[in-house]
Amino acid sequence: MEPFSIANDLMHQPQKLRDKARAEGYLFFRELIDPAELANVRAQILAICEDHRWLKSGTDPADGIAANGVAHIEGQPTFFDVYEKVLALEDFHALAHTPKLIGIFDALFGEPTLVHPRTIARIIFPKVVQYSTPAHQDFIHIRGTEETWTAWIPLSDCPQTLGSLAVLPGSHTSGIFPTRDALGAGGKGIDTDTLPYTWTASDFEAGDVIVFHSLLVHKGLPNLTEDRLRISVDYRFQGQSQPIDPASLEPHHGRNTWDALYAGWKSDRHQYYWKQRTQNACDRDAKETAAGSNTNSARS
Predict the structure, then answer these.
(1) Does position 201 have pLDDT exceeding 80, yes or no?
(2) Fewer beta carbons within 10 Å, N or C terminal of the chain?
């Protein structure tokens, strides 16, 4: 695969940043976030994993070594035993509001940024390659405005062999592609063999971030390590004036309430912050109908 193009030199050149984003559909930044902030969230997630015996006994939890013969897949009942506790972590949500991230999106959107409260964590086990996140577009899951962008952030160094991210630059310009049922997060995949784009990927170091358009085709690479967990987060952002699907204002997977998830938080700074900023919320049924009519064939 070709490596990502690095966008750090455009961080203080908004027009050139927007031009690059419009042309390629993604922006990759080296050392954008303090690795210590990522390590803090990762340690809290791994502590939950350790409590539920997901980690190998006798190893340092910081190493993220999976227990022998253990592989919990997103969507399975045993996965939610851990995941619901992850969703209640205050620092996990606060990370989405990192000033450097917000600054990138303020420049990209040309208006104040709305951070989606529906934050997502991925805990990917080794030796379950068939459950790697398939090639897909986020918009079919997000709805609302197509001008929603995702920030994908691994919480530690993440070489391609650990299961980093790959994207198809330029694919966001071809509309919505047909989908098929697939294993892995989201449950929907795209056949990419005939698409006129080239896969691009790089090794990540802690603090590196890739952000991408909701129509950009991307996929998770398989975790090919012997025993390491890959832990990453997905945060989504849009311009404050743009429409948003009400589902994006609910906790991921919808199994809990915000009141329940906020119960142990020390601060209310990142609680219900969106309520006065979402006057343009979409009617979900109308958007699903409109989007569904386009899902079976690509739009130009």
Answers:
(1) yes
(2) C
Within 10 A of 208 (CB to CB), how many other CB atoms are there? 24
Q: State pTM to two decimals.
A: 0.92
State phi, psi for 105 to the nearest 5 degrees: -75, -35
Please enumerate, as own/partner, the contacts of 12-19 that have beta carbons within 8 Å and a separation of 24 or more. 14/107, 14/108, 14/110, 17/104, 17/107, 17/108, 18/107, 18/108, 18/110
Ordered alpha helix ranges (H), the chain: 14-24, 35-51, 77-87, 90-94, 99-109, 139-142, 258-262, 284-295
CATH code, 8-295: 2.60.120.620
Mean pLDDT, range 121-136, rounded to an integer: 94
Instruction: Tell me how many degrees the CA angle 281-261-98 measures, rounded to the nearest 5.
Output: 70
Among 6, 60, 64, 107, which Cα is nearest to 226's?
A: 64
48 closest CA partner among 119, 123, 98, 117: 123
